[in-house]
Design brief:
- The protein is an all-alpha fold.
- 71% of the residues lie in helices and 0% in strands.
- The radius of gyration is 17 Å and the shape is elongated.
- The mean pLDDT is 83.
Length: 147
């Protein structure tokens, strides 16, 4: 294996972890985002990072396939703390936005304006749940690799 391939694989691993952490932190912050005038920009950003997170989770095994790169997998340890909080944010939106078609701002403020959620808002919670599952599955696969 050439030096360039080793650097590329480690770079992919680190960038993937950065994207994953960006999404998890965005999930923790988006719930407290204000929605003045129905502005859903933080939710749109977290939707985009959710899409990126699925891609990043799928590239993790490529970056961690190096022999001797087992120490890199310890980057995943803080995600064990963030995972329950991310699920705590996502689950109310599965019922409120996806099933009941409420706007994300209404679900976050526990009120109803009578407006119906846009298509991407209805897909927000399933997308974030899929991202969390993709990170958990690929993180587990990486963790189980021999050192």
């Amino acid at each position: 294996m050439s030096f360039a391939e080793i650097v590329l694989r480690l770079g992919v691993a680190f960038v993937s972890w950065i994207i994953i952490y960006l999404n998890f932190i965005a999930l923790l912050v988006v719930k407290i985002a204000e929605c003045p005038g129905g502005d859903v920009a933080p939710w749109t950003m977290s939707f985009a990072t959710g899409l990126l997170t699925i891609g990043a989770a799928l590239t993790l095994p490529y970056g961690h396939a190096l022999k001797g790169a087992a120490a890199v997998r310890f980057i995943a340890v803080p995600l064990l703390v963030l995972l329950p909080f991310a699920l705590w944010v996502i689950l109310p939106y599965l019922a409120g936005t996806t099933i009941d078609a409420q706007v994300v701002c209404d679900v976050s403020k526990a009120m109803s304006s009578g407006n119906e959620a846009a298509g991407w808002q209805r897909a927000w919670a399933p997308l974030q749940l899929a991202a969390v599952i993709a990170v958990a599955v690929n993180g587990w696969r990486i963790w189980r690799q021999p050192a």
